Amino acid sequence: MPVSGGTVTVTATGGAGLPVSGQVAVTATANVTDNAAAALAAVTALATTVASLRTLITTLTNLVLKIQKKVKA
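RESULT FIELD:
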């Protein structure tokens, strides 16, 4: 298997108990794509969004605490 992407080819021969003329060769090919750069970009964007949400939650919490203090006073 390729580590960074490429083509994978698997070959098999069926009918091992038969004479060579009766055996069947089968080949399958698949292209493997390396999307590490796209995954890293998605994780970075998610980290930025989480940091932004954390800031908004902190701001909202502080606002709620101020409102509670004014209501009690």
